[in-house]
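thought: fold this chain, then report.
action: predict
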Amino acid sequence: MQVMKDDHEQAGTRGLDRPDLGGPDPAPVFGMLFDAHAAPLQRYLARRVGTETAHDLVAETFLVALRRRETYRPEAGTARAWLYGIATNLLRHHVRTETRALTATARLAAAGQTVSAGHDGRVAERVAAQSRAAQLAGALAELSVADRDTLLLVSWAGLEPGEVAEALGIPAGTVRSRLHRIRRWLRANAPESTKDNSSHEEEGESARR
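observation:
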């Protein structure tokens, strides 16, 4: 009985990874997608634009996904990559907010200060919560939107390069070459205390290829 249960759970996981969204009643499958992906998506977005904006973006992401469910093709990519792609497009309307937050965080980090996570500091609260991210914020603010999306979908969202390619609608080879170029640039331009970790990340990425 346990084997049958495990097989059923694994089949459910595979179905949730690439679900059929074309059924007459999308509510059940979207409920499962929300349970599986809303929390990590919210954490990722909060690190970029703050908690309050992230909550709004998560809600909007699922609303857009529901309206556009007929455009999802399971054979073309995972539901997670599809949702992060939608969220990334929505996030680009908040680029100025993110850039201001990163710049402010970098100034405070350079001055040896911390950003408050109170009501007035929520835009950068997730970034400032980690000292390395705070030190790296200035370099992240200088990246192009496309480069920043690529790097943070891997480093903060935890997507594999193939999923990032699906999310951004670009070839996987482009993602890998872009990551290599970005990390090389970061080693040259980021604070000294962040460079070793960036090198380790790239070594880990190479090992997964």
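thought: worth noting. The chain has a mean pLDDT of 78.
final: tokens above.
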